[in-house]
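Researcher: I've got a protein sequence and the SMILES for copper (II) ion. Could you write out the 3D structure of the bound complex as structure tokens? I'd like something to compare against our soaking experiments later this week.
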Amino acid sequence: MNANNANARKKYMLFACLSLLLVLFAAGCAQQAPPSSSTSAVSGAQASAVATTAPATPDDAQVIHISVYGYGYDPPIAYAKPNTKTKLIFDAKELTGCNQQIQIPSLGVFSDLKKGENVIEFTTGPSGSVIDYACGMNMLKGKIVVS
Ligand SMILES: [Cu+2]
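Model: Sure. Here is the predicted complex with copper (II) ion in place.
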């Protein structure tokens, strides 16, 4: 009986030690793995978010939206701040044989428009300058007044 008891106690102690080790090991994994992987995931997400949003909207930049329809541009006259980084967005709502190309001679732009947003980035000139643009055939016209 005594020997049996001692054996049982030994087995119990061994089991207890093993399970304690297991618990500690699991706890250690649980504590270490998720924070390290989640912090790197978070910092990665922040880094990519910064990388994608920062150039798009720097504090000193301006965004000009112009909608493109079959009949022309809306607004036909847009205004911009001088000497400023500018994101000019031609949002093609309707594309026709007439308006499917855009030309902006002062920016050296002559290109096809695709449906949806077409982004042209440039820096505006001094106050008083005007950026004329038109469809590829020079029929539909619009302008950006820098003031
Ligand atoms: Cu045209």
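Model: Residues 98-99, 135-137, 139-140 surround copper (II) ion (CB under 6 Å). Residues 62-146 form a domain with the Immunoglobulin-like fold (CATH 2.60.40.420).
Researcher: Great, I'll pass this along to the crystallography team.
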